[in-house]
């Protein structure tokens, strides 16, 4: 099978978890004997090549502003950039060129936040089948998060309705869809996206995480101050402010909070909120090394996380998690025990849970064995099997028609 993955970016350039998942999937498909390529945006012109067996088609971005520079721009330029992305016919034409060169059977689109939806029209015209993974809420929300003014959105704002109608017009040509969690698929169907697509072509496929060898993960023996950790982008929807506020209620000593991640506009606001608390802002940090250095991860998201890759990565290293009772986080953390869930944006409940952990000590934490069901479900082979099945069924349905 010839498979072309289309994503806003692709490793070695990584913005979030989606790109890492696309890379794992593409390289695993190569190992199974498929012919695989990836087309994606780059800041500057780069040549076509091969990366770990995957043919890569870098496309120089034709957007007004490069994605990592957006938040440094005035509001009017950010708005113009967002509108320009959606009607960027030149950018869509570039990706059509990659399709013509590679001649895929399947074009598998992923994070389309920076990409024009007209790409799906080019897929349909090419004769290939379009499979799309819902990594976020880009088709429903202009910010891809269903989050605004400090809270999750229960409905669509006017601007989101307009952009959703435009994207939905092209999304109708998608042949099959996979959501990274059941809540993500349900949310899209709640707003009319893919509601008529049969279950054979609308599935939930959990993301995989890089596997560690050795069976059940081991927890590193630790002593001294109890280290809570936060891993992710420093943005309001990730709940970093709720976590810092909760820390103000903790005992004066015996603990620390390590914060690994960057804020696009700088972390000075969060440092100010922390004051003199024992909170260390580490900036970008290797996730594996960071998780090896903490006792417990806190995932206090106040938006509907589509998947929660950091939770699974923590489990894979034997690190327990306190998480928000919301979206996919609730499914993942709740599988270990409901007592490890707290209401989103509730600093008092989070503080109470963290204080209880400190009182009970490290020996009271969930055992690594309790993470086994989740880790089994996110094995790489399971994800690749699921996509192979979806591709095959999509092609078979077309032949039957």
Detailed description of the structure:
The chain has 401 residues and is of the alpha/beta class. It contains 14 helices and 16 strands. Strands 3-4-2-1-5-6-9-10 form an eight-stranded mixed sheet, with helices on both faces. Strands 13-12-11-14-15-16 form a six-stranded parallel sheet, sandwiched between helices. Strands 7-8 form a two-stranded antiparallel ribbon. Helix 6 links the parallel strand 9 and strand 10. Helix 3 packs parallel to helix 4 and helix 7 packs across helix 12. It is globular and about 65 Å long. The model has no long low-confidence stretch (mean pLDDT 92).
Would you summarize the structure shown here?
The protein has 401 residues and is α/β, with parallel strands linked by helices. Helix content is 37%, strand content 18%.
Which features does this protein show?
401 residues, alpha/beta, 18% strand, 16 strands, eight-stranded mixed β-sheet
Weakly predicted, low-confidence segments: none
The secondary-structure element order is: EHEEEHHEHEEEHEHEEHEHEHEHEHEHHH
Strand arrangement across the biggest beta sheet: 3-4-2-1-5-6-9-10
Q: Tell me what portion of residues adopts beta-strand conformation.
A: 15-25%
Q: Indicate the overall shape.
A: globular
Structural class by secondary-structure content = alpha/beta
- Tally of extended strands? 16
Quaternary structure: single chain
Q: State mean pLDDT (0 to 100 scale).
A: 92
Task: Supply Rg.
Answer: 21 Å
Major sheet details: 8 strands, mixed
Amino-to-carboxy terminus distance: 20 Å
Q: Into which percent range does the helicity of residues fall? A: 25-40%
Helix segment count?
A: 14
